[in-house]
Amino acid sequence: MKITKDMSITEVVQKYPQTAEVFMSFGMGCLGCAAARFENIEQGATVHGIDVDALIDALNKAIGE
User: Fold this and answer.
1) Which of 16, 43, 45, 65 could form a disulfide with 39 if both were Cys (CB 3.0 to 4.6 A apart)?
2) For residue 41, which of 15, 1, 4 has the smallest C-alpha distance?
3) Is the separation of the CB atoms in 35 and 24 below 8 Å?
4) What would the pLDDT profile of 2-55 be if each residue is shown by its tens digit?
5) What is the rounded distance in angstroms from the CA atom of residue 45 to the CA atom of residue 1?
6) CA-CA distance, 39 to 61, in Å (whole number)?
């Protein structure tokens, strides 16, 4: 299954724990915050000023997609 920008941050980290390191390396260290449960990857990346396409590429590499 490929990770997409409309998936929830929490859903991705729960399904693929190895992605937590990728989120943190992009400056999204708030994986346990309340917003992470409701925001999708694109929303979280936008709030943090992160290139969402680069993040998605890195996440998919981390899960072997």
Assistant:
1) 43
2) 4
3) no
4) 999 999 998 899 999 999 999 999 988 766 677 777 889 999 899 889 999 999
5) 21
6) 22
